[in-house]
Amino acid sequence: MQEMSFQHYLLGLFAVANNIAAIPLYINLIHGRTVKEQRKLCHIATLTAFLTMIITMLAGLAVLNFFQISVPAFRIAGGLLLLSTGFGMMNSVEKSIELTEQTFSKIISTAIIPIAIPITTGAGTMSTIILFSESAHNKPYLQFALLGAIIAMTILIYLSFWYAPKIVKYLGTTGLDVLTKIFGLITLALGIQFILTGISQAFPKIL
Question: How far is the C-alpha of 5 from the C-alpha of 76, rounded, in Å?
Answer without folding.
Answer: 22
